[in-house]
Amino acid sequence: MSESPSGLPPAAPRHRARRAWVTYTLLALTGLVFLLQSLSSSLLGTDLPLAWGAKINALISQGEVWRLVTPLLIHASLLHAGFNLYALYVIGPQAEALFGRWRFLAVYLVAGMGGVLASFLMTAEASVGASSAIFGLVGALLVFFYRHRRALGEFGRRGLLNLLVVAGINLVLGLSPGIDNWGHLGGLVAGGLLALVLGPDLRVERVEVSGETIVSDRRAFRRTWPLALLLALAFLSVALLVRPSG
Questions:
Q1: Given CB 3.0 to 4.6 Å as the disulfide criterion, which of 11, 181, 207, 226 pairs with 174?
Q2: Rounded distance, CA 128 to CA 117, Å?
């Protein structure tokens, strides 16, 4: 398999040429919500987005199921927001290029909700942050690089090793007090499972001039959309189960 001078597969420049609009939109939206948090704290003395959207188990159990989603946009401090925004800026464009815009968005949101749900089930502590969704992207990329480690060659092996190191370091750091590692683990696992369902397939095609090149199989989504629908319905069912019975 031939590689470009940068070490990326020949298909990568075509992907990289596309703007990562979904990643940039998520960055802007998350930054806007943090700005609203800061303004409401300064002007009203209360962080309204935090109060209305944090993962608080008792309120979720009372029927406020939107709190399985809204924590992805809320952060506890400038450092917290800055770290997650930087991580999304670094990881997001690559994941969006490989998975496509809508599949990338599905992985980000559903894996993020999976992390919040894991936190809801495993710990009573309140939590916020986009880290469960970012771990979801890491899990999805881990599965992608592992599945295509032979097709991608050295590029794939480097990508897999780098992601394993990043995930391992962050999970170890997550053992510190005040960090919701259940959310991280839940997002990581959910992202990996989603990559099996929504992840693109790569095939090797021989061309006359350059030998072998990697291309993305766009039929992957059409083949797997029923599984994606079932996964979404399963998550919705679990979310509805936490609603009050009376």
A1: 181
A2: 12
pLDDT 10s digits, 100-113: 888 899 999 999 99
> Is 41 tagged catalytic?
no
Q: Would the pLDDT of 118 be above 50?
A: yes
Cα–Cα distances in angstroms (integers) from residue 13 to residues 20, 40, 97, 235, in the given order: 13, 43, 10, 36
> Is 131 an annotated catalytic residue?
yes
CB neighbours of 59 closer than 8 A, spacing ≥ 6? 67
Distance CA(121)–CA(94), nearest Å, equals 31
What count of other Cβ atoms lies within 10 Å of the Cβ of residue 55? 27
Domains and CATH numbers, the chain: 12-241 (1.20.1540.10)
* DSSP bridge pairs for 213: 205
Q: Any idea how long the chain is?
A: 246
Catalytic one among 119, 127, 132, 184? 184
Structure tokens given for 203: 């095939």
Name the catalytic one among 119, 127, 131, 132.
131
Quickly count: other Cβ atoms within 10 Å of residue 109's Cβ: 16
Reduced to 3 states (helix: H, G, I; strand: E, B; else coil), residue 213 is strand
